[in-house]
Amino acid sequence: MASSPSGSPLTSPYDALRRELVARPKVWLITGVAGFIGSNLLEELLSLGQTVIGLDNFLTGHRANLDAVLALRPDFPDRFRFVEADIRSIDACHEACSGADFVLHQAALGSVPRSIHDPITSSHVNVDGFLNVLVAARDSKVKRIVYASSSSVYGDCTELPQSEDRTGRVLSPYAATKVTNELYAGVFQRTYGMEIIGLRYFNVFGRRQDPKGAYAAVIPRWVANLLDGEPCHIFGDGKTSRDFCYIANVVQANLLAAAAAPARSTDTAYNVACGESTSLTELFYLIRDGLAAYRPSIQTAEPHYDDFRPGDIARSFANISKARDALGYEPTHRIGAGLAEALQWYAAANGLPALESARA
Question: Are 303 and 236 in contact (CB under 8 A)?
C-alpha cells in the first residue's frame, strides 16, 4: 500500500469504496451468480452488507458455489434472492432486474473452442442474452450496468501492451460476441441515457474455477491433471503468453466500475489484468512447483506440447493505465500471489493437508 509523506498508510480507492458500501448498502443483480466469477462477487457483496439478487440457469455454474458462499455467515441467505432462469428469457431478466440498483453481468458461454464448435449457441447466450439484460435494466431504471467483456476482442492486434483504443481482427465466434456486446452497450448508453461499463477480462483464475469439462480454463485444468497424474498439454511451442488475473482483482474492478463517477467512466471498456505476461511454459512450472509443496511426487511432471489451436491469440499483455486512472483500479494479486491462494484452495478441495505456513 502507498504511504503519505508522513509515513502513514494511504487508503486505496477500493478500501474507501468498501467502507462506503457498508455505510450505504445497495441492491445488486449478478447474472451468472453460480459461476466462478459470479460467486466471488456474491461473497464480496454479502460480506459488505449488500442485498444481492442472483440469476443463473446452472448451464456452466454450480449450485455448490452458491451453497459454499451462503454457508460462510448465517446472515448471508437473508440478503440473497435467487432466480433460477436463463438470460435468454426476457421475462426472467425483468424479474431479476426489478429493484436492483446495479447489474453486474457475468452470465455467458465462455471458451473460444466451444464457440468454434457451436457458434449459434454462443451467439444466442452471449448476444441475445446480453440484449435481454440491457432491455430489462433499462425498463427497471437501474443505476448502472457493469458487464464482462474479454481480451479476445484484441484478436490479431500485435501492439503490446494492448490498449483499449487499438484492437485487431477477432479470431473466434466468442470474440465476435464480445465485440457485439461492446457495440450494444454503447448504443444503449447513447440512445437510452443508461450508464454502462465494460470490463475486458484477461485470463481470470482463482477459487471455485471449475477444472472439469472439455472447455475448462488452463489453470484449473492443469491443477486437476497434475493431481490426477494426467499429462498437461500445451498448444504450440509454449511461448504463447497470457496476462493472468487473479479473481480478487476482478471483484475489485467490478465494484469500482459500478461506483465510478459517470462523466469520466461510462460508455467505454477497460482492461482488467495485471499488466504482465506469463508464457504457458512458465505457467506450467509455477503450477507444478506450487502443487509439489502439497504433493512432492508432482515435482517430476513435465508438459506435453501439441499443435497450435485455431482461434488462439499469440500473446496477451494489458495496458491497465486507463482503469487505474478512471476507476482507481490497482491489482492486489500478481501471478505468484494469486496462484498461491488458488492452489491452497484447490489443495483443500482435494483433501490435501495444509502447508505449515498456511496453518501458522
Answer: no
Concerning whether 174 is annotated as a catalytic residue, the answer is yes
Domain ranges of the chain: 13-205+245-275+317-333
Angstrom distance (rounded) from CA 193 to CA 35: 30
pLDDT tens column, 208-263: 998 887 667 899 999 999 999 999 999 989 898 999 999 999 999 999 999 998 86
Contact 104/28 with Cβ under 8 angstroms? yes
Strand partners, 3: 9
CATH top-level class of 13-205+245-275+317-333 = alpha beta
Query: Could you tell me the pTM of the whole model?
Result: 0.93
Closest CA to 239 of 314, 345, 307: 314
How many Cα atoms occupy the beta-carbon half-sphere of 192 within 13 Å?
20
pLDDT digits 0-9 by tens, 325-343: 999 999 999 999 999 999 9
Which one of the listed residues 154, 174, 201, 346 is annotated catalytic? Answer: 174
- Coil, strand or helix at 8: coil
Distance separating the N- and C-terminal Cα atoms of the chain: 24
Q: Retrieve residue 50's grid coordinates.
A: 449488500
Enumerate the H helices of the chain as residue ranges.
Answer: 13-23, 36-47, 63-70, 90-97, 112-117, 119-123, 129-140, 173-192, 218-228, 247-259, 262-265, 280-292, 321-327, 335-349, 356-359
**Helix (H, G, I), strand (E, B), or coil: what is residue 173?**
helix
